[in-house]
Design brief:
The protein is an alpha+beta fold. The protein has 2 domains: about 325 residues, Beta-galactosidase, Chain A, domain 5 (Distorted Sandwich), CATH 2.70.98; about 230 residues, no CATH class. Helix content is about 40%, strand content about 25%. The strands form 4 sheets. The protein has a 9-stranded antiparallel beta sheet, with no helix packed on it. Strand 15 and strand 16 form a beta hairpin. The longest helix has about 35 residues.
Length: about 625
């Protein structure tokens, strides 16, 4: 083979390779082709089943119930039903009938499958996944919505057996019909309202179907099964936060989350049900058209799976009693778990409490987050674009509010430090007899006008805010994918992977957590010098920051950045207080307090009077 022949074959190969590359389908086209093939396979399966039923009916009876005088029944597909099912010939002849429909607005792109007439895919246009790809909240290959009912002969039918015809379509709305004739049909309507971001108004109209849906077993069942997809970097947090949340009338929210497979049957009407993820949720709601006995189920995450979070499913029931025109009204929400956004969701339900889907903490911690932290954070968000600076300013505001408590705690600690030599002498005098030591210490506190609790109470009052932040930052949508310094996402841990796992610590390094730990250790050292604490309590103070180093390594870097800034502000406050407070003056105050007679509280006086009365009665006896 000469050189020209080799060159010629090479050019032909390159041209063919380029042609195949240029004409290869896009991922969207490949997905659409796969869905069409799946539909064809389902159609063939349905037709095979129907053919078996038809042959069985002919063998068992010569009287065919399919010979109806109604012309609409003449289109039956050999299965004794008025509903027309698609055949392979129909699909091949009219492929456009099976092409999915897309409606969209600024927030959502909703794909509705003609084969079934239900939502197959949801894309959130304003957000991206952690890998910068499109945020597909519900994937067409892993999301299935189906209506089920019984026809006039008692045959179970489902919406995905049929091709639904488009009755009307705009960019933001679509109506699809399953028709028997012009006056008898089922219609599904989807509308994106610009006044309701992330919401889809959904209606199922059952018109003139009283002759074609079996009486006595006529409830319409809505089955929704989906596999939640990974949206964030950390699969661990995605799995931990995946849950089914629902709201019953006049009750608080209930969350179904488990490390095992879980299911539940609701014996009351449900107002809404949500498939909740860490930062996004898919919710279905109806004020009145969801009956009792709704079924919920949640599967397990496969440890080896890096894409699928958890399979979830619900089955809802809606009543149909043969009305000539029955309308079922629903609302979908596909959007972020952002408190202010969810607070404005309109489901037409009084006190829907959708915003409570975000775990702000129970009891006082939730009150602190909703009443204090969130309003300040929202205010700062309107002024400043940098999330890291917002956290710093939030910390400054909160620490300034807590300054009087810090000052009181410092003064109490300083007084206890001044009394420590006398307390040590008492301890040595009684040779560690705890009862005598405690009694003399209490007498010393009274004379000096010092309360050992006066240093603890201010610290305890700060704890609700400390723990509220622990709950707030890992669930603050406002921090998602917000960069600051070296952190690419303040809602996730910062720093690199190690490539190996350290027990209790993890397989990565969070730099903000290291800074927080170092500053906490320094703060503990300085505080020990002020308080004069010794022994086990001293070393316990150093142990706790090391424990939190492992615990907080997986947490949002925004949280550990807050704790670091809080420690630095505390250093500044204590330095300023130490400059302002004169230990000599504290000595004089304690000395003056000792000269004054110890005042007894009203409770002590009553106890002493009661004891005197008791002693007098004993003497009389």
């Amino acid at each position: 083979m000469d050189r020209n022949t080799i060159i010629g074959f090479s050019l032909i190969f390159l041209i063919l390779a380029g042609y195949y590359w240029y004409t290869a389908p896009t991922p969207e086209q490949a997905a659409q082709l796969q869905r069409t093939q799946d539909s064809l396979a389902k159609v063939e399966q349905i037709n095979a089943e129907n053919l078996k039923k038809s042959e069985s009916a002919k063998m068992n009876s010569s009287d065919s119930t399919g010979n109806s005088s109604d012309s609409s029944l003449a289109t039956a597909n050999n299965n004794n039903t008025a509903f027309q099912q698609p055949t392979r010939e129909m699909v091949v002849a009219s492929p456009e009938k099976f092409k999915d429909i897309v409606i969209e607005n600024n927030q959502l792109s909703i794909t509705v499958a003609k084969m079934g007439g239900t939502i197959s895919q949801v894309k959130l246009k304003e957000f991206k996944r952690s890998d910068s790809s499109d945020l597909i909240l519900l994937d067409a290959q892993k999301n299935k919505m189906v209506w089920q009912w019984n026809d006039e002969n008692g045959n179970p039918l489902s919406s995905d057996q049929f091709v639904w015809e488009v009755a009307a379509k705009t960019n933001s709305s679509v109506k699809l019909q399953l028709k028997i004739n012009d006056s008898s049909y089922i219609q599904q309507s989807y509308t994106l309202d610009p006044k309701k971001p992330y919401q889809v108004d959904y209606k199922l109209d059952i018109v003139g179907m009283e002759r074609f849906v079996r009486r006595g077993n006529s409830d319409f069942k809505f089955n929704w099964n989906a596999t939640l997809q990974k949206q964030e970097r950390d699969m661990k947090w995605e799995t931990q936060n995946a849950a089914i949340v629902y709201k019953l009338p006049d009750e608080s929210l209930t969350t179904l989350t488990s490390t095992e497979e879980a299911s539940e049957v609701l014996k009351n009407k449900v107002q809404w049900v949500a498939f909740k993820q860490q930062y996004f949720s898919s919710i279905i709601s109806s004020p009145s058209d969801i009956l009792t006995d709704a079924k919920l189920n949640m599967g397990l995450n496969k440890p080896s799976d890096s894409v699928d979070v958890k399979p979830v499913g619900i089955q809802l029931f809606s009543a149909y009693n043969g009305e000539p025109n029955r309308k079922l009204d629903f609302e979908f929400y596909f959007g972020p778990n952002q408190y202010n956004t969810l607070e404005n969701v309109d489901f037409g339900i009084q006190e829907a409490s959708v915003e409570r889907i975000i775990p702000m903490g129970w009891g006082i911690f939730g009150w602190v987050n909703r009443g204090l932290v969130l309003p300040i954070f929202t205010f700062l968000q309107g002024l400043i674009g940098n999330a890291g600076i917002m956290i710093m300013l939030l910390t400054i505001i909160i620490k300034t509010m807590l300054l009087p408590l810090v000052y009181k705690s410092y003064i109490s600690t300083a007084k206890m430090r001044i009394l420590k030599p006398e307390m040590d002498a008492i301890k040595e005098k009684h040779n560690n007899d705890l009862q005598k030591v405690q009694a003399e210490n209490m007498a010393l506190y009274k004379k000096a006008g010092v309360s050992p609790l006066s240093g603890c109470v201010p610290m305890l009052l700060q704890l609700p805010i400390l723990f509220a932040m622990f709950q707030f930052f890992p669930h603050a949508f406002e921090l998602r994918q917000k960069t600051f310094l070296w952190s690419h996402d303040l809602s996730q841990w910062d720093g690199p992977y190690l490539g190996f796992n350290i027990p209790f610590y993890g397989d990565h390094v969070s730099f903000f957590t290291l800074l927080m730990t170092a500053s906490t250790l320094i703060y503990t050292h300085l505080n020990n010098q002020i308080s004069g604490v010794t022994g086990q309590m001293k070393w316990m103070g150093y142990l706790m920051p090391v424990i939190f180093l492992g615990v907080l390594n997986d947490y949002a870097s925004g949280l550990t950045w807050y704790y670091f800034v809080s420690n630095m502000i505390t250093f500044g406050q204590q330095w300023a207080i130490r400059k302002m407070v004169d230990d000599d003056k504290l000595h004089k105050q304690i000395a003056e307090a000792r000269k004054k007679p110890v005042k007894k509280s009203a409770f002590q006086q009553k106890m002493e009077e009661a004891m005197k009365v008791s002693q007098a009665r004993a003497k009389k006896k």
